[in-house]
Automatic annotation (TrEMBL):
Species this chain originates from: Cerasicoccus arenae
Domain of life: Bacteria
DNA polymerase III delta N-terminal domain segment(s): 6-134
NCBIfam families recorded: holA
Protein name: DNA polymerase III delta N-terminal domain-containing protein
Amino acid sequence: MKPFTFICGDDDFLVTREGQAVFAEKTKDLADDFSKETIDGAAQNMGEVESALNQFRSATQTMSMFGDKKVVWLKDVNFFADSVTGRAEGTKKLVTEWQEELARLDPAGVDVLITAHPVDRRRKEFKWFAKNSDYTDLKSGTSDDFLLDLLSAESQRLKVSFTHGASQALIGLVGGNTRLVLEEARKLATYLGSEGGEITDELVIQMVPHFGEGDFFEAVEAFFALDLNWTLDALRRYFFIHKEARPLISNLQGRNRLMIQLRVLMDSGEISLGPRGFGKGPFEAAARKYQQHFGTFDAKSNFNVFTQNLWYLGNKVAPPSAKLKLKQLVDFQIAFTRAFEDLMRKPTDQQSVMRDLAITCLS
């Protein structure tokens, strides 16, 4: 048996979530609260690293009052990261001394759980932890394939199933955010009840809000629905809460940028919009064909349509594109640029600038 459990990864939500589940399992038979202890391992400098390790050392050396096995969780350790604190020679010395103590732990008397994020897997200190522990490395990512696998595992845990369209819809609506994918899946499962069942794309669309564009979503949706009255009403609601229009302009430009790329691909016959969006095969073929023109994109970007979620493109972005010609979309982009320049010239009259933009484009 390894002397301790080590869970790590780059996504703090996934690591903490797994740590909570393991800690709950390790402590489920312990009635004495003094037999379970949690220590914060987040440190901003070498002094805080030393303080956290001292607290950990004290916790592992203090036994339970009732003779139970003690469980100690050092959570949110961040000094394995490629950071100033993590690279400091003083930190490395403290960690080396800590390793010697961990190697001597008796898991029958004290059960230690360590969770760490982010981590630099190149460091010899990290490699020691991976080799000498009950080790779990939680991979993370934002690709649709990664999120689909994550959602599949979560749906099994929740005893529900997602149709393929529902999975794609959920990932698209939350903007590929890991935490939101899992939290919204749990919300949908709760809605179905203890008996579980199937989650359909219709249910996802009905119950999951669109997180990708935040507070700007209504105004952007209204504009690209080509509905002037709705857009003007949405702008009034937006400026009732917000003072600054530049984030709204940025969202309009970003959506329009994607629509221009889709319009070109549709006009050329590379892809076509069907009742359920775009076909995966033609879209991937187009991505391979034009990859050289986009360069490398490791994250989603509206400068590269092929980094986007296919469901989001087919069900949210593309329908207005089908109603507009390429020239109109280019004219929109020019109008957005001019409106941005007007905002710089008239910073105290931003609502009227946006209202004029909407009237110019949609009337």
